[in-house]
Amino acid sequence: MKKGSIFWLSLALILCFIGALGAGLVQNSFGRVSITDIVIETDVGTLTGYLLVPRNATERDPAPAIVTSHGYLNNRQMQALNYVELSRRGYVVFAMDAYSHGNSSVPVDGRGSEISKTTGGMNDAVEYVSGLAFVDNTRIGVTGHSMGGSYADLTASYYTTLENQALENGMSPTEAAAQNKVAAVLVIGNVPFGLEDNHPYKAEVGIIAGRYDEFFIVWMNDSNVRIFENPIARQLFSYQTGDSSLLTGESLVEGRRYLNSETGYGMTMWAPWERHTWNHLSRKPADYTIDYCEQNLGAPAH
Fold first, then answer.
1. Which of 39, 139, 256, 258 is the most buried (most CB within 10 A)?
2. Per-residue pLDDT in tens (0 to 9) along the chain, 302 residues
3. How far apart are CA 181 and CA 141, in angstroms?
4. What whole-number distance in Å separates Cα of residue 257 and Cα of residue 112?
5. Domain 32-297 fold
6. Nearest-angstrom CA–CA distance, 260 and 266
């Protein structure tokens, strides 16, 4: 091999090494966050993901936790912007591969829990995270983009159902609330349609909906540019808050928390000027996600 070729090959390998090292340092916040590849055997199959644990999360001082999920044609790594930024701010994060995606097994018909299949395994991820000694299991959030947003919605609906059923079976409010392991849900690039059949959620609800999101045009039966005036959006806020006055009158306000005075939980929506796929790549949704988590799960020690 010619000397010139050896030089350029060596330079390329050095640059690759530097790039890989730099990417790794960014992901683990320069050593302040441990990242473990997790494999969980469930009654459905195998659920995999990255578990990111910041130094501040200890058994003596448990930290809030967040489960993230990706969209249909993606895997856990498409949530990198969220899991890196959240973990470096002190949150324990489980970035899951949904069933049938990434390294997670494909659910087999007739085997395993139906709710596990419906939520893509997010409820299994919540159960796993809630059992970690360094996690505050009263402050667990779920979020996802597109298909993952639907999983987050269905997971919040599932845990609200558990709490309501516990109350119906005579448990005290405190005992019933302990059955509900999701304190906040943030749906990105999707709609929390579960509210229509199971409202209000016994959890905080957030939505990030791009104004040029091509899917929302179908879901909302209108251009998403006018999302805060949309009757479907108004109805969802009314379901969560119990406030029928939101169905008419002035348009909803971006970033404003609308509270259900009876449950103590509310609902907030943001609408960045972007398309569907940009939700998990741009800064605005990441900023909104961080703000939402800090407001509703607390801001852990950095």
1. 139
2. 566 677 777 677 777 776 666 665 556 664 589 999 999 999 888 999 999 999 999 999 999 999 999 999 899 988 999 999 999 999 999 999 999 999 998 766 656 677 888 999 999 999 999 999 999 999 999 999 999 999 999 999 999 999 999 999 999 999 999 999 999 999 999 999 999 999 999 999 999 999 999 887 777 777 778 889 999 999 999 999 999 999 998 999 999 999 999 999 999 999 999 999 999 889 999 999 999 999 999 999 65
3. 9
4. 38
5. Rossmann fold (3.40.50)
6. 5
Cα separation values, 10 from 7, 21, 55, 273, Å? 5, 16, 37, 44
Domain extents for the chain?
32-297
Q: Which residue has the tokens 């959620």?
A: 201
Angle between helices 122-130 and 147-168 in degrees, nearest 10 = 60
Contact partners, residue 299, CB within 8 Å, separation at least 6: 89, 90
